Amino acid sequence: MRMSELRELEKGDLIEKLNNLQRQLFDLKIQMAQGKMTTPSKIKQVKKDIARIKTLLRERELGINRGALS
């Protein structure tokens, strides 16, 4: 997921996507604990996507407009 794609979404959509990713991360951690995980790198990717969304939400909260800089 790219930041440019995320910047186009509204706050409600970002929060919904964040909740879905957090649920997905939880499920992946359970799979890892059970030894059923097929792609361990998926956890890393989901964590990065969560961080991107949280960063974007915080930027909007502070009124920072990074989209104009890129």
TrEMBL record:
Keywords: Ribonucleoprotein, Ribosomal protein. The keyword Ribonucleoprotein applies. CDD domains: Ribosomal_L29_HIP. Pfam families: Ribosomal_L29 (PF00831). GO terms for biological process: translation. InterPro entries: Ribosomal_protein_uL29, Ribosomal_uL29, Ribosomal_uL29_sf. GO terms for cellular component: cytosolic large ribosomal subunit. One of its GO terms (molecular function) is structural constituent of ribosome. Belongs to the universal ribosomal protein uL29 family. This is Large ribosomal subunit protein uL29.
